[in-house]
Design a protein that fits this description.
The complex is a heterodimer. Chain A is 35% helix and 28% strand. Chain A is an alpha+beta fold. Chain A has a three-stranded antiparallel beta sheet with strand order 2-1-3, covered by helices on one side. By secondary structure, chain B is an alpha/beta fold. In chain B, the strands form two sheets. In chain B, strands 2-1-3-4-11-10-9-6-7 form a nine-stranded mixed beta sheet, with helices on both faces. Chain B has a two-stranded antiparallel sheet with strand order 5-8. The chains are: A alpha+beta, B alpha/beta. At the A-B interface, helix 1 of A face loops of B.
């Protein structure tokens, strides 16, 4: 099973990189773009030994303790 | 007073700190490798600047899992003096020894310059030889020094007098223009509730001799020695 984990700054935290990218996209004519948040993407191979529930627990634990700093970041993930 | 300087793969200010403590301050000092489980009976621990673990994932995010950090955590919990400088500050934040987190500088650029910081409290072992309101001339060099904490944490820091240094103008005014990185409340350094753990983005070791352009930084370490002797 593989986990795709997406990490980004919380919406309450200013994301200057996202803002800069947003401005660039608007400058290039992508006028439909309303907002951009930049983040990180992790592709984690969990092997084949875990149940879906166990994998969920494992991923959430990893995301909270290592992949994010909960003071400034949030995460979402999908299992495949 | 024996100082220990933690050395992570990617640290790059440990020799500057070592030089300052041994040659300028005249106190015993030794390096402590990050894999070490012991702090070698040191009386104070310096977590120096640099790019521990290449700043991979987030600044300080990997370093906080180094074996030595468990000893540092215990040492701090027992009231031991721990000072984190620049990347060392970032590591202490990630390790939960200080509240808050660092964001990328507001201007998205690495900022390397001398600037002024105002001493906000002399009630710490790190500022006991300084006066509240005093201005230090000291350099910074970082990409992630934009201090962030949620509003409740920030309120607590302010209410408890845990903000120890703020970026300021040459005459000590706290202005947006004197803030090099977008840090909340112009915060350049904070301490924990116990006041024995300090994190600061400016580099006192880079301003520890007149030859370097300023020797204001050595006074933070002189304060530590003075506090230690008095305790």
């Amino acid at each position: 099973m593989k986990a795709k984990v997406f990490v980004s700054l919380k919406t309450s935290v200013l994301d200057p990189q996202g803002k800069t990218i947003h401005n660039s996209l608007r400058t290039l004519g992508y006028s439909s773009v309303q907002d951009v948040r930049q983040g990180k993407f992790f592709l984690i191979d969990l092997g084949s030994g875990l149940s879906r529930d166990a994998a969920q627990q494992e991923v959430e634990k990893m995301a909270r303790s290592v992949l994010t700093n909960p003071v400034i970041e949030e995460f979402s993930y999908v299992l495949e | 007073m024996k100082f220990g300087v933690i050395n992570f793969p990617g640290s790059n200010c440990e020799h500057d700190v070592y030089h300052m403590v041994s040659k300028v301050l005249g106190e015993p000092v030794q390096f402590i490798w990050h894999q070490s489980g012991s702090l070698a009976d040191c009386d104070a621990i310096v977590v120096p600047g640099g790019f521990a673990y290449g700043d991979y994932l987030r600044t300080g995010a990997i370093a906080r899992f180094s074996p030595v950090m468990e000893s540092v955590r215990k040492f701090a919990a027992g009231g031991g003096l721990v000072i984190g400088i620049c990347n060392g500050f970032q590591i202490l934040l990630e390790a939960g020894l200080l509240p808050g987190a660092m964001l990328k500088n507001k201007g998205l650029k690495y900022v390397c310059q001398f600037l002024h910081i105002r001493v906000e409290s002399d009630q710490t072992p790190y500022t006991s030889s300084l006066r509240k309101g005093e201005i230090l001339y000291i350099p910074i060099g970082h990409m992630e020094g934009n201090y962030f904490a949620d509003s409740r944490t920030l309120q607590e820091l302010e209410a408890n007098g845990q903000v120890i240094f703020r970026y300021c103008t040459v005459v000590g005014e706290i202005t947006e223009a004197s803030n090099p990185n977008g840090s909340l409340h112009n915060i350049a350094g904070i301490c924990n509730a116990g006041r024995n753990v300090l994190g600061m983005m400016p580099h006192p070791e880079r301003a520890s001799e007149p030859l370097l352009g300023s020797d204001d930084g050595i006074r933070i370490f002189e304060s530590m020695v003075r506090s230690f002797v008095h305790s």
